Amino acid sequence: MKSHKTILKTVLAAMAVMAAFACGKDPQGEEQGPQLNEALELAVDVEDITYTSAKIKVTHNGDKNDTWYGFLTQDVSADEDELIEMAAKAYMDGESSEGLRKSKSYVTVLKELQPGISYKYIAFGLSADGRVYGSPASVEFVTIATPGEGGGGTGGGDTGGEVVNGMKVNKAWTVNYVGEGVLYGEQYDNVVTVNSTDRNTYAITVVYASMWDVNDLYDMAVLFAEDMVAYIDEYNDYYGTNYTVADLLYSGTASDAFDLDPGYYMAVALGITPEGKVSGLYNVSEVFEVKEQIPTEEYKAWIGDWTIAGENGVNMNVTLSRHVTNKSFWMFGYEGFEDFPVDVEYSKERNDLTFYAQLVQENCYLEDYEMTCNLYFLGGDSDGYFYDVEDGNYGIAIAGVLEDGQRALVRYGVNTPDYPKFVNMFYAAEVTGEYKFFTEEEKLPSFRGIAGFYPAAGASSRPHFNPASRKGMIAAESVTRRF
C-alpha cells in the first residue's frame, strides 16, 4: 500500500545539544574529544532465565547524551577491566555485532545461549571515539541445564499413547532434523524430515526448544490451523485461486526447509485435517542446535561504519553489525536511530545488501518524542508516495561492489517492470493508522540513479546528516493505494 507524504510540522520541546561531537585541541596542540561524564554509573539486572535465553536490563544515572556499550561473555572469571578494554577495541575495529546505546533504561533478550553455561553481561561507558569512562556494571548468571527444567516439555515427546490436553503422540511419525539438504532442486541449510508409516495428514513446524511445553501444544495447534485457513482464504481472494488447506499439508514421508537463526529448536509434526481442524496427533524431534556460520571475508568486509552519499548531496552515516552470519546485518544510526536497528539482507552469492521495508519494533516507546508507536522502515518513490508493509515486506535499495572495487547503492527493482521507483528510505512511526516521519524528504540521501556507499572516514569532508538538527516530526495524510 502506498500513501502520499505531506509535510505538517509538529513542534517538540526537546532541544538538541549541538556540541556533543565537537573536537578541540589542548594547549599542547594534541587532539582531545568532548568532555566525558566520569560520574556515569551503570546498573545491570537479569531475569527470566531459561536454558537458551535471559532478559537483561541496563540503566544508568546519566543523560541522553551519554553513550554506553554492552556485551556478553563466557569468561566469567577473567578480569573485567581487560574484558572491557578488548570489547572497546573490538567495537572500534568494526568486529562487534552491537552498537553504542543511549537509552537510560534498555531491555534486551539474549537468545541462542547454551544450556547450563555461566555467562556475564557487562555494560560500560564508551564514547564514539573509543574512550571508556564512568563506572561499569555487570551481572553473572547460569542458564538452566536441561530443556525439561526450562520448558516443562517431554524431549522426544513419547507419552506412550497418553493423551495430554487433547494431544497424543503418533508413533507412526518420526521427526528428524536433517540439516543441510536439497529440496525441489535447491540447497537449504535447515531441512526437517518426517518419516510416516500411515496416511494421516500433518503440517511441519519448528519451535524454540525453550518454548516447548506439551501442555500448551493443543492451543498452539489450534492457532496454527487457524492461520493456515486464514492464509488460504486471503491467498485465494487476492489471486482468484481455489486452493484448500489440504494443499498445504503432508501425508506419508515428507520434508520441509526453514530459515533459522542460531539457537536450539525442536521440529514438530502437527496433525491437521484437510478441513483445517486439529486432529490431536503429533510427534516431535529431539532438541537440535543451529550453529553460527563462519563469516566469509566478503561478509566481514561490510562490517563497520559507512556513509550513504545521496545524489542530492545529503550524506548519512550508519554502522553495519553482524546479525545472522553470511545472511544479514543490523544497520544502526540511520536518521540517528541507535537503539532500533534495521535488518539488512546479505547475499553470499552476489556479495550485496538489500535494504527492505519492515516493522522495526512493535509498541515502541520513543523517549525523545514521548510517544508509543509501531516503528517501521519504509521506502519513498519519485512521486512523493511512501509504501507501507500491509502487503508484506519489499525491497527498497541494493548496495553492491562495482568492478573497480568501489561500493554503491541503487534502487531495488530497476529491471522489474511496474516496480515502484524508490528514491529514499526512512523510519516511520505509526499510531492508530496515522504515519509520522522524522526527517524532511530533502534531508534524506536520495538514489534516483547511483548513490555512494563509502567507508565513513572516506567521505567525512562531505555534508552529513546530524540527528540533533531535528526540530519536529512530519505528519503524513494517508492516501491508500495498493503496492
Count all strands and give the number: 33
| Low-pLDDT regions | 4-31, 146-160, 458-472, 477-483
Q: How would a crystallographer describe the biggest sheet?
A: 8 strands, antiparallel
Strand % is 35-45%
SS content category:
mainly beta
| Averaged pLDDT | 82
Number of domains: 3
Give the N-terminus to C-terminus distance in angstroms: 4 Å
Quaternary structure classification: single chain
* Global morphology: globular
Number of helical regions: 4
Query: Percent helix among the residues?
Result: under 10%
- Gyration radius (Cα, Å) is 25 Å
What does the model show?
The chain is 9% helix and 42% strand. The chain is globular, with a radius of gyration of 25 Å. Strand 5 and strand 6 form a beta hairpin. It has four helices and 33 strands. The strands form seven sheets. Strands 1, 2, 25, 26, 27, 30, 31 and 33 form an eight-stranded antiparallel beta sheet that branches. By secondary structure, it is mainly β. It has helices at 80-92, 147-151, 217-239, 297-300; strands spanning 2-4, 9-11, 24-25, 31-32, 42-47, 54-60, 68-73, 105-110, 118-126, 132-142, 168-169, 173-183, 186-196, 201-208, 250-251, 254-257, 263-272, 278-284, 288-290, 304-309, 315-322, 328-332, 342-347, 352-356, 358-366, 371-381, 385-387, 395-401, 407-411, 422-431, 434-437, 450-455, 472-476. The chain folds into three domains: 1-23 and 293-483, no CATH class; 41-149, Sandwich (Immunoglobulin-like); 156-286, no CATH class.
